[in-house]
Design brief:
- With 236 residues, the protein is an alpha/beta fold.
- 27% of the residues lie in helices and 24% in strands.
- The chain contains 6 helices and 12 strands.
- The chain has a 6-stranded mixed beta sheet with strand order 4-2-1-10-11-12, with helices on both faces.
- A hairpin with a 7-residue loop joins strand 5 and strand 6.
- It is globular.
- 43% of the residues are buried.
């Protein structure tokens, strides 16, 4: 099954133009079998200082989305896109954790990269830097990453897959792929192919933590067609 590892909904992400019902419909339309709902988790969304309440709203959006597809073959996994306060302009994607992880750590945006990495590792999740070569973004320390995202968002410069592949190989980490869908442009067909039996957060994490190879579906910004590529963690 093809899972887009980076998608948003207007219920949380203010920059997303459509609600989760339409996000699901658009993913199905282009042949995607599921998404990781990685809404924005950022400090400036919390205007009243009540971080636990924001974490609860964030989780509720995911739970609502999961309820919408519970009787279908479409999969929705829980994820988090954190805007890092200590690393301006950097977004981190957290995968393979349960919603309770966010309840326990409602101020994730205030952590350093290293702190966040070890926190995610402790609960069996994995940490990926989102779109590190987009505009003014920069790639952080690969020692504290499990992966680097190939971003297929059609509004930006490109996927940068040629530049990021040797970096990931040298660091012995994975490449992932996601559309960063906000409904601000056409829906890219992209993601990572996973076994159809993957249903839980733990199973999802194991697909990446214990593999040396992933099959990606990539769509370049200047194309309406996607293509598949297999990435091996290291050629050594």
């Amino acid at each position: 099954m093809l899972i887009d590892l980076h998608a948003h909904s207007s219920g949380i992400s203010k920059c997303c133009r459509i609600p989760i019902e339409q996000v699901i419909k658009e993913a199905k339309r282009v042949g995607i079998d599921g998404i990781v709902l990685t809404n924005h988790y950022q400090k400036n969304y919390v205007t009243d200082g009540d971080f636990p309440a924001f974490a609860a709203r964030y989780i509720a959006e995911y739970e609502y989305a999961a309820e919408l597809v519970k009787d279908s073959d479409f999969r929705i996994f829980f994820g988090i896109e954190v805007t890092m306060e200590k690393h301006p302009g950097v977004h981190m994607l957290i995968y393979g954790v349960e919603p309770a992880f966010l309840t326990a750590h409602p101020t994730l945006f205030d952590y350093t990269q290293e702190e966040l990495y070890y926190l995610v590792c402790e609960v069996g999740g994995f940490l990926v830097q989102a779109h590190p070569m987009r505009r003014q973004n920069r790639l952080l320390d690969t020692r504290f990453l499990d992966g680097i995202e190939i971003s297929c968002h059609p509004l930006y410069e490109g996927t940068h897959i040629d530049e990021l592949t040797p970096i990931a190989e040298a660091a012995d980490i994975l490449l992932t792929a996601g559309g960063d869908f906000h409904a601000d442009t056409h829906r890219a067909r992209c993601g990572v192919y996973l076994d159809n039996n993957v249903k839980t957060a733990r199973e999802f994490a194991e697909c990446f933590l214990y593999t040396d190879e992933v099959k990606l579906c990539v769509q370049e910004v200047d194309s309406r067609e996607s293509y598949d590529v297999t990435f091996c963690r290291s050629k050594a």
